[in-house]
Structure formats: structure tokens, C-alpha cells
Amino acid sequence: MTTTADQQDEQGAVRRGAGLVVEGLGVSLTGRERAGTDVVEGIDLVLRPGEVVGLVGESGSGKTTVGTSLLGYSRAGAVISSGKVLVEGRDVLTMPWREVRQLRGEEVAYVPQDPASALNPSIRIGKQIVELQTLRGIGTTASRLQGARDGLAEVGLPNDDEFLRRYPHQLSGGQVQRVALAMAFLPKPKVLVLDEPTTGLDVTTQAMVLETMAGLCRTYGVSALYVTHDLAVVANIADRVAVMYAGQIAEIGDRRTIFASPSHPYTRALLDSIPHLSQARALTGIPGRTPAPGARPGGCRFHDRCAFVAEECRTTEPELRSVGPDHDVRCLRSEDIGRWDISRGTVPDADPDQPREVVLSIEGLDVFYGRKHVVHDVSFDVGKAEVVALVGESGSGKTTISRCVGGLHREWTGSISFDGTPLAKGARKRSAADRKRIQYIFQNPYLSLNPRLTVEQIVTRPMELFGIAKGREATDRAKVLLDQVALGPAMLELQANRLSGGERQRVAIARALAAEPDVLICDEITSALDVSVQGSIVALLEGLRIERGISMLFVTHNLALVRSIAARVEILQAGRVVEAGSVVSVMDSPAEDYTRNLLANSPRID
Amino acid sequence: MTQVATLPDPVEEVAAPRGRSGAGAWALWLARRLGLAVLTLWLVSILVYVATAALGDPVRAILGRDYASNPGRVAQLEAQLNSDQPLVQRYFSWLGGLLTGDPGTSLANQQPVGELISANVVNTLVLVLLSAVVMIPVAFLVAMVSSHFRRRRPDAVIQTVLLALAGLPEFVIGVLLVALLSTTVFQVLPAVTLTGFGGRPWDSPESMVLPVLTLVLAVAPYVSRIVRSTLLDVLDSDYVELARLKGIPEPVVMRKHALLNAIVPGVQVIALQLAWLAGGVVVVETLFSYPGVGLQLVDSVRNHDVPMVQALSMIIAAVYVVVNLVADVLSILLTPRARTAISS
Amino acid sequence: MSAVEETPGSTPAGAAQRGPAPSPGFWTRARRQPRFVFGLVVTVLVVVFAVVAPFFAPFGENETAGAPFSPDGVFGTDYLGQDVLSRLMYGGEAILLISVLGTLLGMVLGVLIGVVAAYGGGWWDEVIMRLNDVTLAFPQILLALVVLTAVEQPTAWIIVLLVGVSHAPRVARVSRGVALGIVSRDFVVAAEALGERRSRVILAEVLPNMSTPLLAEAGLRLTYSIGLVAALGFLGFSADPGSANWGQMIQENRLALSTQPWAVLAPVAVIAVFTIATNLMADGLAQLAQRGE
User: For a tag on chain C, would you pick the N or C end, based on fewer CB atoms within 10 A?
Assistant: First the structure.
């Protein structure tokens, strides 16, 4: 994917000296209470023409802030306080306002994260694409229109009049994002900043958008900064990778080097928490939570969560220093922490031939939303202490099926039986014993806990409801549960709205466990969480499965995750089971084209 | 935003909109809305009738202490009100009368209700329309100025003033204006409209100023606050941010991107306030003796003149329902998403 | 799926509004809102004035203190020669009591209707809201006037009822809107999955999360109640025509606006101050509601 130096020189003849250099960039907060607190600091980056640099970080790392700073833009409440952003030698941050506006869109372009809200819902897309050029008076109406048509064709979209007259809400998510790409490339900019443009898109569309983007960059010699939290995506399209933590660059270097020998403990921990498609892994997380601006520890910012922390790390703030050709690391101990191997943490896949005792059985399930028939004739079963994954893209029906099993959706026909006895359609109609045995964990931890209640109230409620324990005894059990989900007993008195996402999801798991269930239905429970947090939740679930013999129905769109957590998998498309079987056989030797496509399009690290 | 909830299935291509053949769907939708409005009005008529005819004895109320000493009068009034007939029958004959253009006879001066109210209806409509015409641009202008200075001193000052005005009852505003401009501080405007019954108040325009000003000051602050709040929401939205990042100049961002999307909520709140005006005129007209339906209503209530009250209430309620209907239709027309949803 | 903000307590520039910051107690936040504080303080002052002042009035409520419209005394005398200041002191209790009771009634009715409609959904929602729209079609004062047509002399309770009933549909609309946002959240669904009783779900899960917006609405309703009761007094429909009543005082003394303005301006000023204060308080609460939960 990378162009060689010669090819770059050829294409870049006109653009010599092009690209973008960032020196010592710093952004701080404004406002009464926290003025001067830095969001990011000391950022140095070089973007060469035609190369893609991946800027990777979890939430709170400041990666989006860096991205928009390249256009001289900071959101309300923050201001770019130091550094330079040099485009062809000119510093964007000291340019007069009018020149910055001129620069935006024409020389440095931006592709936003959320496709649905990026376009003005009241203006037709044809008009929006040419808006910039119309305003600048570039070309004639006819030439602009033709340029728009060409641009749309380049991103693989239809370019007839009918399409141009559509409003944004009449396009699918992938189409909107490609329109945004076309819009950004129309004036042939020199630098492109992309802010997680494929999150929220399913895997196939994501692959298409990424390929389009890489192709356009190659063709026009554009340098790109790709901001993302997804290391797997970056492994496939970036030439160089920068990893950010708590507002600083922790490690930066050539892609191959970073993935082959990561030298910062944070990078290693991140890589340890990412599942692989080809082999199961024992995922791990990072203890603690990302510090907010203003609450960052002294010394090395990562030291309070680092597995290799030494005394000097607490007091000395490390500088970014070179540990190899095109490889810089911000760590005092990078030489002392030994080698790292991508196949660390590999464990054997779940044994497909293990004897299983069926606990939950679904037969001939058809689900309806009003008159719409959304799930067709689905049958599968779940064994004791077994994890069955329901996998599919959006609209495949995986969440719908799980909601029916959990009693949250009532319009279905067929049979769902637990231990041989059929279950009623809604949770209210089921007996208390049945309700107790199947517990549901929701996707968004910020919505699934009542923000007004304390952790103690939340976790003890199921115990009271199902007659398991009351009062003091319930509180004692709650403490034990919290300990099992790796939360301290001090959490009991906190209101739910004081916890972070990962902590809330653990409380949700504790609440589910409080009912002493036999089956846990996990509905994309890690999709809303950072990668390292996902790792620790998965480790927790695996422990629970082994210790308590709990079965799980695990709904996800992430195939790599399935490999590390499930024994059996059902692949769903448009409400039907396309392929099913043990994880090993389906993922190593898929029988159906759809499955093959899914596997081929999933970005892989391994 | 969850992956599952927001985006349609990308594997399935989004169908092209169907264009003008959706005219049939439009007509259907319009018919449903009209039907709903008519239903509401019918239910309102029941409420009005029951409230006036069944909750107390209007005859007793009219005659007061004379009730015991004047049985002849009692009988006469009761005959007029058809008190011997059952409630339901009385209601339907009243309703029938309304629909055929005969809303009955006034109890106070024994003349047909229709004649008594027609001139006043026109007067009130003029007052309300005039106030609306002044109010809308003023409110929008203030909102735009305020949001231009957002989070700085001028914005805070404007907002506090608007907030204070928004809470004041309309007659308080009226009295203060009268004191300020008519009697106590300056003496430039008349305090009372001197047109008699059946006259046209706009023949002496200076007497219209205070009533209109009062209504505008009573209504504009709330509209302005909502428009400003919507504008700010839109200005903070992702697509406006993208427009700025595309390099589009700020005035164009304001005009094209922001205002366009702020108009629909603006229309809704304007409709709400216009509808409120239908009730607000009652007090304002009384204050300024303006010969409109509001003043007439208050007089009729004081006289316990049931047929008049019934007719006037129906008019005011009808105005309210119609204004809401128009607002609904306008908001759908102005929102492309809703528009295409109907025609497909 | 973009990762959700992992760190509470921070709302860094650029973070999506997905993770709410942890909330310090209600009063701590409320104290920092200048509008709320100012509004609350002034409201309390007016209430105290209305309740306590009658004990300090220089003259009785209906006592003749001098010639009509004479300038004797702090604010002069009114159309019957009664002392304006004293009548001002006596005139607040009625308005206050009726407004507060009417607001309370309206809130209770409205919240009940709105939350049941939102939680019940489907058919329930449709029917309830259609009926609601019918009562909404009445401007508030119109409803009061219509009912008063047939009543010879309104009592205080009738006016309380009228005020409450005219508020109820508006409160119902607002609370339905707020409740709809809560009822679809996963923690309510989770409670249903556990099999909680419906009444418990409403009381323990839905209502507590509505408290701040409901408080804001209550403040707003109080402002309108005061305006409505004062307007009714102004139009001559008060519960006890002889006693002092701020709204009625305005009507009584209107004719002398050019000669003895204070007889009118004093009650006007008090009503104005009261409504401005409650409105500021309500707005402060509304801002809290927006920023908090």
C-alpha cells in the first residue's frame, strides 16, 4: 500500500515541500474553573506526501483534539495554546483569519466521524458537495457539477441527477460517509484529516470506505492523518503509527516496527487486549482508568497503571526519545522491559467436540415488529457453561433474537425453552424462577443503570425481588459480587452516575449475577467501551464461566472477539442463520460466501 | 449512538424517493389532520356547553337576589335557555344552530348573537394580526443578535431582560406602559381606545399603539428565547461545525445552515404564542376598552350571558385549533425528512 | 462504535455527550446558579411579606384612612379612602394561597396523566393525549371565564380548581415528553425484565429521574398561576370582592392613574416583582435540569 520514495518524488514533483509538520502543539482548556489545564501537549508529527499516519488512542487521549488542530480549529471551551502547524512552510496557527479559512477545505480537508450528522439535513447533497467551490467562485456551474459527478464516481456512488437531488437522510450510513469523502477530495487538498470516519459502519462498508480513501491518497499524493481507537484498522492502512495516551504521544514509528516490537508498556497492553481472528487469546485489560485533563499524575502519566513501573517513573517525566530508526518512545524503561511477541497470550480454541448438555433451546423462532417480519425461522441451542455467539451486521436480527430470549420483546412465534420447559413471551408473564435464571446485560452502560440509585441499591434489588437475600445479608453478598467483578466495596455507596463506563458495565454484570442466573445474555456489552476495558471485561466473563458454570449468549459484530470468547457461533444476515457451528470450524473453514466475505473484510492485526 | 440503532442496513440499498406521485399520500395525510382538528373542535364544543350549562344555574346567577322575587323573569329566561329539555337535546340544538350560522340570542340585550359579535371579531383579528406582524421580526432579530454575542455580556443582559419580561402578566405590562407613556411619565398616547361599539379602532391609529405594544411585549420574549436556544443548538451541531471546517464564511454559515434548521422550531413556538394571543386579548382588550371579542367575552361573563359566552369561546377555540393546524402543516413542509416520509 | 468517554468528571472539549459527569449534590449546583438564587431569595421575601405583613399594617383592611385618592400615607389612599399600603399588605395572602394550591393541583394531575401516557404507550398514549389536546385548546383564562359564567359568586376553592385544571394539560404534555425520554432507557427495560411491578417502576425508576425538569416546570406554572389569579382579580372575579386583592386593586384604582398613580402602581410593582422572581427561579432550575441529568 505504501508508495516507494521514487514514486512519491514523481507524483510529488509539483508538491515538493508539501506535507505537514506539527511542532510542539499544545491545546488547553478555557473557562472559569480549569483555565490553563492542558488537553494535549508537546505533540510533534510529520506527515509526508502520500503517506497515511494512524493516530491511535483511547477516549481521553486527546487524539480528536490533535486532528482538528491541524485545521487551526478547537472546540468551544478549548484553545490552541502553543506550537506550530506548518503547511508548506506557513504556520496555520499564526495565519490571519481569512487565510486560515481559505486553507480549510482547499489545502487541509476534514472528514468527520459521524456520517449521519455531518451533512445539513435540509440541503440536497448535490448542493452541499459543490458548496465550497460555489462560494469561492471556482469554475463555472457546469464545471463544478461535472467535478461533483466525477468525485462521486470515484468513491463508487451513482452520480445521476436523481442521486444528487437526494437529502442526506435518504442515504445509508456508508453512502453518506463516501459523500463526505468525495466532498473532501473535490478541491484536491494536500492534507486530509479523518476522524474515526468508519466507526458505526459495518465491516463490509468500512473496508470499502478505507480502500477508497487509500486509493485516493495514493492517486493524488495526499498525506492523511487517520484518527482512530481501532488498532486493527490502522494495521492495514497506515504507513506510520502514533499512539497517544493522556494528551501525549507515547510511541511513534513505522507501522511494522510498532506492531512487531512495541516498546511502550501502554502500546503493549493495548495490543494484549485486542482479540485475533486466527486464534483464541486470553485477553487482558489495564487496571485503573484514563486520567482526565487536570487530573493527570505527575512523573510519567502512565505510571499508575503500568506493569513495569519503577521508582523513577513516579517523579521524572520522560521525553520522547529514539530507540531505533523511525521509532520514538516516551518511556524511561523501554530498554528494560524485554521483548514482546504478537502471539503472546494465545490459548487453545474451544474444543468443538466437547460433550455438551443443552440448557437453552430456541426452535423455529420468527420475530415481528408490528407487521414487519424481521427474523425468520432461527433455531439453535446453548449448552451448560458454554458461550454461543450471535454475530451479524446491523439489521441482522442478533439483538432482536436476544431480546426475545430475555423476555424484552413479545411479538414472536416458535419456541424458546429453558431446561425443557417453554418460556412465556414477555418477562412479566414468566414465573419468577424463569426470570431469575436468565439475566440480560445491555450494550450502553450509561443507559442501563438508574443514575439516581447507588451501586448497593442496584445490586441488591434482584436479591430482594427473587427472595435470595435481604437487608444486611444482601449487602454482604453485594460486596462479594463487587469483588468478583474487580470493584472495591467502597463503590457501594456511590451513585451510578459517578462511575466510568467500564465500572458501570461491571456493576451491570454484578447486578445480573446477583440473581444467580444460569444464562447471561450479553448484548454487545463491550461495543461502547475502550479496547483495554473490553479486554478486562472479557477476562472477567471467562472467569465467571469457568467458576460458576454460567452459559452465555454473546451478541456482537466483532468476529475476532468471537474467537476468543465463544465455543459456538451463529452467523446471521437479514434475520436468518447463514452459517452455524463451532467457532473453530466456522472461522477456519467457512462454508458460506457471506461468512468468507465477513472474515475477509474484518481488519486483522495478526 | 449505537451501531444498531442509528444506521439502516447498508447491505440493503436505500430506495429512491418516489417524487410527485406521492400527491395521493399527501392528500390522505392532510385529510387525517383536518379530521383530527374537527374532532377536537367538536369535543371542545361539548366541553364549552357542559361547562356553561351544567355547572351552575345561569338563571340564578343572572338574577342574583331577584331570583326569588321575580318568577316571571325566571320563567322567561328559562324558556329562552330551554331549561326544561334534557341536556343532550339542548346541546344538539345549540350545535345545530352554530353550524347553520345561528348562535342564538343574547340574554342581556335580546339581540342575535351573530350581529353583536361580527364587528368585534374583525377588530380583534386586526389587533392580533398587527401584533403578530410586529412581533415576529422583532423576536427573530433579538434572538439573532443575542446568539451572535453568545456567552458574552450583551447576550447575558438581553437574556435576563427577556426573562424578566416573559414572566410578567400581560395586564401588568399594559398598566406599566400606560403609566409610562400615557398618564404618569410621558403623556403621548391615549390610555383607552375611545371607539364605541361597532366602530373601527384603526381610524385613530394612536389608540392602537399601546394595545399592540402590550401584546408584543407579552409574547415576543418567549419566542425570542426559544429561537435563540434553537439557533445555539444548531450552531453547535456537527454539520455546522463541518461547514466551518470546510472553510465557509461565518455569515453564510449563519444564514444558510443555521437559520434554515432553526425555522421549524421557530414556526412551532410562534404558532403556540399566536394561539396564546387568542386568550391574551381578553385581558388586554379589557384594560384598553378595545372593542373586540375579548372585552365582549368579559362583559358577557359578568352578565352571565350564556349564549354569548358559548359563541365567543367557540370562536377563540377555533382560532387556536386552526393556528395549530397551519403550524403543523408548515413544519412538515419545511422539514425535508418529514416531507419525503409522507410522499413515499 | 466509537468508544465512550471512559473518564468521569471530565468534559474535555471534543468529547461526545455520552457520559454524564458525576453530579455533586443538587443544592451545591443550585447555589452556583445566579438566577435560581436571586429568584428564590426574592420569591421567599415576597411570600414572607404576604404572610407576615398583615400584622404590621398601619390601618385595617377596610378601614377608611382619609379622603379617596388622597396622598396621605406611604402610597396614598384608594378609591374608597382605604390606605393603599395596608391593603397591599393584606392583599397578598389570597393570591399566594390560591396560586400555590392551584399549581400543586395542576402538577399532580398533569404529571400523573403524562407519565401514565408515556409509560403505557400505544393505545393509552393516543387516547390520553387526544383528550389532553381538547383541554389544551382553551387558553387558560378562557376556561376560567367559561366556568365562571354559570357561577354566581366564585369561592376560593373553585378558583383553585380552575387554575389547577387549566395547568394540568400543559404539565401533562411536558411531563409526557420528559417521561418518554426516560421510559425507553435501558434501566427501565431492565427493571421490567426483572419483573418489577408497574407502579414501582414509575415511582422508583422514572419519577426520580424527572425531578429537576419537573421542578423547573413547577416554577414556571407558579409564575403563570400568579398571573392568572391576579388577572381574574383584575377582571373582577375574585373570591371575596370586599377584601384586598392585588389584582383587583389595580382595576379598582385605574381611573386615578394620572392623579394618584401609586394606588395602582404599588400592587402592579409587587405582582411584577413576584412573577419576575418566580420566573427567574424556574429558569435557573431549567438550566440545572439541562446540565445535570
Answer: C
